[in-house]
Amino acid sequence: MQLDRLIKLLFGSKKEASALDPMKKFLIVGLGNIGEKYAATRHNIGFKILDELASKEAVSFESEKLGAIATFNFKGRTFILLKPSTYMNLSGKAVKYWLTKENIPIENLLVICDDLNLPFGAIRVKAKGSDGGHNGLKDITAVLQTQEYARFRFGVGSEFSKGRQVDFVLGEWDKNELKSLPERFDRSVELVKSFGTAGLNITMNTFNGT
């Protein structure tokens, strides 16, 4: 018992070491709505990308305050994955809570969301910007009181008739899209890891437009 205590005092655990260095911790937020009704919809692409990342890292989500959380370490960084349980329009509450709880600086926050203004499968990373009409981003910006946080927009296309935007984003992927999603998920997983290890600028230069 005394030896275990001495080792812990000298070296600490990985979790404790990470807690001492906030710059090595990253909050990756996937936006979506909870419930089976929304699980396979375009609007839930943020959840799906985090599910893919967690699966590849062999970690599971657990229900925590204001969301589901999964954590893994990669190249000396700690990635905390958050799927808010607040529904899309109140995402900011969950984001602020976990940033504060884990003592993560806002520059280490990445928010993943769907984007109607990008062709299906296109990915764009930006350091800051407007919400672009996305209610999840709008609430996060309002709660954090800043637009200066990184966001990863995944294109879902705009193949809908006038007045059917809501039906489109809350609709499910078509057969051709479903065939292409696995490759897009792989690319998205690489992007998230790059954000935490190579940094935002390199990630934008490497992944934007691919």
Could you characterize what this model shows?
The protein has helices at residues 2-11, 14-20, 45-56, 91-101, 135-144, 165-169, 175-197, 200-207; strands at residues 25-30, 62-64, 67-74, 77-84, 109-115, 123-126, 150-155. The chain has 210 residues and is α/β, with parallel strands linked by helices. It has one domain: 3-Layer(aba) Sandwich (Rossmann fold), CATH 3.40.50.1470. Helix 4 (91-101) packs across helix 5.
Please render the helix and strand layout as text:
Elements: H1 2-11, H2 14-20, E1 25-30, H3 45-56, E2 62-64, E3 67-74, E4 77-84, H4 91-101, E5 109-115, E6 123-126, H5 135-144, E7 150-155, H6 165-169, H7 175-197, H8 200-207
Parallel strand pairs: 1-4, 1-5, 5-7
Antiparallel strand pairs: 2-3, 3-4, 6-7
Helix pairs in contact: 3-7, 4-5, 7-8
**How many individual domains?**
1
Say which CATH homologous superfamily is assigned.
Peptidyl-tRNA hydrolase
- Within the CATH hierarchy, at the fold level, what is the topology? Rossmann fold
Please tell me the overall pLDDT.
90
Biggest beta sheet attributes: 7 strands, mixed
CA-based shape:
globular
Q: How large, in whole angstroms, is the Cα Rg? A: 18 Å
- Percentage of residues in DSSP E strands: 15-25%
| Strand order in the sheet with the most strands | 2-3-4-1-5-7-6
Task: Give a count of the beta strands, DSSP E runs of length 2 or more.
Answer: 7
Terminal CA distance reads: 53 Å
Query: Roughly what percent helix?
Result: 40-55%
Task: Quickly describe the structure.
This protein has 210 residues and is α/β, with parallel strands linked by helices. It is built from eight helices and seven strands; from the N terminus they run H-H-E-H-E-E-E-H-E-E-H-E-H-H-H. A hairpin with a 2-residue loop joins strand 3 and strand 4.
